[in-house]
Amino acid sequence: MKTALVCGAGGFIGGHLARQLKREGVWVRGVDLKFHEYSVTEVDDFVMGDLREQDFVRSIIDRKFDEVYQLAADMGGAGYVFTGENDADIMHNSALINLNVLEACRNRNIKRVFYSSSACMYPEHNQLEYNNPNCAEESAYPANPDSEYGWEKLFSERLFLSFNRNYGMECRVARFHNIFGPEGTWMGGQGKSTCCDLSESRIG
Hints:
The chain is of the alpha/beta class. It is built from 5 helices and 6 strands; from the N terminus they run βαββαβααβαβ.
């Protein structure tokens, strides 16, 4: 049976991904700091723990998985990313997670690793026209992301691709673009879509 590890399986995208992999007949281990907010996980093995801790990462990557999906990050919506108040945590925590996961995969000779990046890594001027964002690959450089979150994503993309070149891995990178939907985070400033208190709205 095909095996997969989903890092960030307690989150919005990771939760949906883990569910889909199970439906395709894959044996799935999920890992996150928390259980999913809105649904019971369907994975075969869910481990709660901190991917910033190297020993913990080694304990969950204790075998050669066919595929590893690295979606875990310190992230959120505009209320979390763009205030500047969380920049150090965002850069430190996410970079540490990626370094730990990549090194553990290399040590287990795991070749196929997926990394979830973000459209926030594109230059700020690419993102100013809301109806016409420029996501052409050649426009990514010269680099000038709009936030420290974007800079960390850009660094981590290069980290994963460097492991490809130097260690013969087959890491793949996708840049997500403001993903939201059912079972997504709603409150606390980390959601991609925010709620409105209708009791405060006025008409007329």
